[in-house]
Amino acid sequence: MATTTSRSSAGKRGGLRVADYTKDENRKQPSGKNGGGKWLEYISLATVPLVLVLGNSMLVPILPDMERKLRISGFQASLVITLFSVAAGVVIPLAGYLSDRFSRKAIILPSLAVYGIAGIFAGLGAVWNSYWLLIVSRAFQGIGAAGTSPIAMALVGDKYKDGTESEALGLIEASNGAGKVISPILGSLFALIVWYAPFFAFPIFCAASFAAVMFWIKEPKSDDKPPTVKQYVADIVTLFKEKGRWLVSTFICGALGLFILFGVLFRLSNVLEGAPYRIDGVAKGGVLAIPLLGLVVTAYVTGRVIKKNGPLMRRLMVIGLAMMCVSLAAAALLYRNMYFLIGFATLSGIGTGLLLPCLNTLIAGAVDRSHRGMIMSLYSALRFFGVAFGPPIFGWLSGKSDALLYGVVSGLSLAAFFVVLLFVHPPKKAGSAS
Questions:
Q1: Once rounded to an integer, what is the mean pLDDT over residues 261-290?
Q2: pLDDT tens-digit map of 98-111
Q3: Is 221 exposed, middle or buried (0-12, 13-18, 19+ CB in 10 A)?
Q4: CA–CA separation, 133 and 121 (whole Å)
Q5: Dihedral in degrees, nearest 10, Cα atoms 282, 285, 287, 290
Q6: Is residue 365 a part of any domain in this protein?
Q7: Which residues contact 162 (CB under 8 A, 6 or more apart)?
Q8: CB atoms within 10 A of CB 434
Q9: What is the CA radius of gyration of the chain?
Q10: Would you say the C-alpha torsion 229, 235, 237, 239 has a positive or negative sign?
Q11: Exposed (0-12), middle (13-18) or buried (19+): which is 195, by Cβ within 10 Å?
């Protein structure tokens, strides 16, 4: 990673200030909160990625019921998930720009409100057997989702310094993984009441997150005047010219990590449902929670220990990708044994837990507050698409051969391993821009 700092436009109010990883900006965590207050803030921020996950994954268990009750095809049911993801992926960069121009909470809070209210209308579409109301509401939910987790990650970069940002980002990554663990189980449990109950349960989670962010998160103020659109675009172009090689490398590694993680979980889910295991429902959710639990615990611990230690981040990223490569290569040989497959999926999940908090911390510190929302949003959009495309591509490859499937993704992990070795070189003190 290049350590040269560009200050060419720093003298202009709102101009680009690329992070100087060789100098400590000496910005302390604001207000000197005690431990209890800090953790209250951490938990409030962690609710944002949690509701993002719940809004999609909690619906997966009710898709078969939706097909029957609304008399729609499997393709139409899949659009309930796909349209949400596409709408979010398209709008995320705009949400990032708006958060840079105004404030993080000015985007997060309305986004949570849109996300929750659209969920109520989606539920009404299910009650009234109106597929079109349901699908349009899901698109609006995707638009709301765009302003949630990516902007919360940018807010962490604004708010916490001196290594505490890695702790907060690790907790956010753990919350994201925990959401993946509990959302299918929650969806199945709510569906025991009535099949469309998850639609109406979700806005309650949104309201809780909205209240937590509104009352417990104090956003640091910026005295910089927002740049013009022309200057803003020029700044982003300058950033990628100067740091594009390592920045794009980290973007790709983050997206690849989630592509592999959720692709493996999708394949494991199909194996559990099929003969001879026939494990489904809450029991299947419990088994799938094992690899995700490995990710959650590892991501949290990694976030706590890396602080500003650039060489440690690089070592952990390399180790994580090596674990993913080796465990997936072993799965290509021993995939017929369910216990081995769960074990290898868990090792791969642990590797992902080592990788992602390091990437999050480096990317959050790549640029100053005036442009951080866009950078985190572009990164999050790629992660979003990695999650979205993992299951269908894994499904296609598994139709040819499971050995081929795990061999291909092991090779992708190996490629990412060399990308980090060649292009990502954090200095000893990997701090954050102002």
A1: 81
A2: 999 999 999 999 99
A3: exposed
A4: 7
A5: -140
A6: yes
A7: 27, 28, 29, 307, 308, 431
A8: 18
A9: 21
A10: negative
A11: middle
Q: List pLDDT tens digits, range 34-87.
A: 556 888 999 999 999 999 888 877 887 788 788 889 999 878 887 888 788 888
In a domain, 57, yes or no: yes
Residue in this structure with the two tokens 């097909």, named with its chain if needed: 67
Does pTM surpass 0.85?
no
Can you read off the two tokens belonging to residue 277? Answer: 């295991």
- How confident is the model at residue 17, as a pLDDT? 46
Q: Is the per-residue pLDDT at 242 higher than 50? A: yes
User: Which residues form the domain of 125?
Assistant: 34-423
SS3 83: helix
The total domain count for the chain is 1
- How far is Cα 176 from Cα 48, in angstroms, rounded to an integer? 9
What one-character-per-residue DSSP string does 257-312 give? HHHHHHHHHHHHHHHHHSTTT---HHHHHHHHHHHHHHHHHHHHHHHHHHTTBHHH
Cβ-contact 264, 291 below 8 angstroms: yes
Tokens of 123: 């539920």
Encoding tokens for residue 190?
Answer: 């709510």
Q: Within a domain: residue 12? A: no
Q: One-letter amino acid identity for 189?
A: L
CATH number at residue 411: 1.20.1250.20
* DSSP H/E element including 421: helix 402-423
296-332: per-residue pLDDT in tens?
A: 899 999 998 998 889 999 999 999 999 999 999 999 9
- Cβ–Cβ < 8 Å for 220, 30: yes
The answer to the question of residue 3 being in a domain is no
Instruction: Please check whether residue 164 is in contact with residue 27, taking contact to mean a CB–CB distance below 8 angstroms.
Output: no
Evaluate the omega torsion of the peptide bond into residue 276 and state whether it is cis, within 30 degrees of 0.
Answer: yes
HSE-up (13 A, CA, CB side) for residue 175? 22
Query: What is the helix (H) or strand (E) element at residue 403, kind and residue range?
Result: helix 402-423
Asked whether the beta carbons of 95 and 221 are under 8 A apart, the reply is no
